[in-house]
Amino acid sequence: MQMILNGLKRYKWAILFLCLCLAGGYYAYGYFQEQNKPKPTGRQVKAEKGNIVSIVSATGTISPVDNISVSSKITGLITDVKVVENQQVKANDVLIMLDDSKYRAQVAQAGARLTNSEANYGRALKLNQLGANSHQQMDAARMDYAVAKAAYEDAVSNLEDTVIKAPISGMVIGKPIPAGQTVSPGISNPMVLMIIADLAKMQIEALVDESDIGKIKLNQRVSFTVDAYPEKTFSGKVAIISNKANVQQNVVYYAVMIDVESPEGLLKPTMTARVSLHIGERNNVIVVPTLAIRDNRGQRFVQVLRKGQTEPEAVKITTGMSSEDRIEVTSGLKEGETVVLPQSGSGGAGRIPGGGGGPGGGATGTNMFRQTPTR
Prior knowledge:
Strand content: 35-45%
Number of domains: 4
Shape: elongated
Structural class: alpha+beta
Number of helices: 4
């Protein structure tokens, strides 16, 4: 016994060192075991109930439904402009006055000719009743009277056209042409004197991609924003879906006309509208981020981390309506279950690991998590 105690005293430092090595090795083994345990990768989210709105996004240009370019029917010198830019006018309000001296003279001349031809026609009619003139003379007098009457009415119409009136109620858009200029009518390229638009009724022409045009229906609800009022959302509805294609950079678009109302007068012509066409809405349904969905040969999966498990399982699901960042899960997932999102930038995003190779599918043959049937 004494010999043992003497031996322990002699080698006590060596024994202490050996005990420390054993303790350190034990803790190191436990640490590395913990580090090498499979852990779920990616951010974890809960499947939750919520509302989802499916939309089609597009951009368009705002323009008034009633937008009239006012021009002159006759040639004349502008003597007075009765309105200014941004002035509200009503239909038939006087906008511009033209010099009418020439047209008044034309009315006087045409009136004198009409009076003379009317008298000649009256005398010819009486003589014809007495048999004192021929039918040919009677027809000539009648024709002269009809021509003189038409010429007089045309002269009166031209005189009335020297007063240019508002064709609709609305606002004067832009600066009207100033007084002192000579205007002339045109058929292919008329001279525009001013523009009047009814800003209470506006319309958006939005271009929708051909892949989405089948989802658009008449009278669908539309919301949109403009840069001038980023915090305000305006509303409207689909009025026209054009069948004429618009090809831009080899992409086919179709024009969708959207009726909007601007009673506050905030919307202005040619503003750019960022449009959201509401094609469907679901309330109180289970939703998950769109990034959580993975496709494999026509089937959809999500990674679900069950309680007490260290590896996520690939759970087959069926999906419904989707928005820009969330998607409805109609079966395969329960509210409150933990869904693991794939790591950003990882190869094979959107495919089930071990589900087969393909372009961008990443490595095959390594099953990173178990697959379970739909519950």
